[in-house]
Design a protein that fits this description.
By secondary structure, this protein is of the alpha/beta class. It has seven helices and six strands. The protein has one domain: Uracil-DNA Glycosylase, subunit E (3-Layer(aba) Sandwich), CATH 3.40.470.10. It starts with 23 loop residues before the first strand and ends in a 14-residue tail after the last helix. Bound molecules: uracil.
Length: 189
């Protein structure tokens, strides 16, 4: 996917990255997860969510009844921000065409945004993840499940239980989903 992304210099993140982290998983998955940006281990390996947050994400997928190889996982920005800072608006907008193309190719019927940055970018509005986590919102023809970022639970163990509960509810939402596939992605951005 995104064969032409190699060597990308659309933003300054290109200067310090080791690898571009495009995404991983089933390219025709019904569920697509969108994180924020690669961390140190992702930058080294070129794969999303392979560090500590990724291990917890695997547990959460299990709670939701999903196997990692049946979902597609990517990030809002494909290169690591220095020191794991939040990606800047210009970096997010420079990378957005790649995310749009991934959505058009995978054509999921549910997107899971991981953390506030991904939710805000995807929905194009301010998001209070404290209030909206665990909810499914309609966005065009897509259903979007808003989640805390799994890394947040590494620093705040209380969030671990909240995330497990949310992904348990996600399992129910997935079991009740209709067969509607997104037909057009124009309305999502
Ligand atoms: N955090 C993210 O948002 N994405 C990754 O790929 C890893 C950690």
């Amino acid at each position: 996917m995104l064969d032409d992304i190699s060597g990308c210099t659309r933003c300054a993140l290109a200067e310090r990255r080791a690898r571009i982290v495009v995404g991983d998983g089933d390219a025709s998955a019904r569920v697509m997860l969108i994180g924020e940006a690669p961390g140190a281990k992702e930058d080294r390996t070129g794969k999303p969510f392979v560090g500590a947050a990724g291990r917890f994400l695997n547990e959460l997928l299990d709670v939701a009844g999903l196997r990692r190889d049946e979902v597609y996982i990517t990030n809002v920005v494909k290169c690591r921000p220095p020191g794991n800072r939040d990606p800047k608006p210009g970096e997010i907008s420079a990378c957005r065409p790649f995310l749009e193309r991934q959505l058009s190719e995978v054509r999921p019927d549910m997107v899971i945004t991981l953390g506030r940055v991904a939710a805000k970018d995807f929905l194009g509005r301010k998001v209070s993840i404290t209030h909206e986590h665990g909810t499914v919102v309609e966005h065009g023809a897509l259903r979007v499940f808003l989640s805390f970022h799994p890394a947040a639970a590494l620093y705040n163990p209380k969030l671990r239980d909240v995330l497990v509960e949310d992904f348990g509810q996600l399992r129910e939402a997935l079991e009740n989903r209709g067969g509607t596939l997104a037909t057009t992605l124009d309305q999502f951005f």
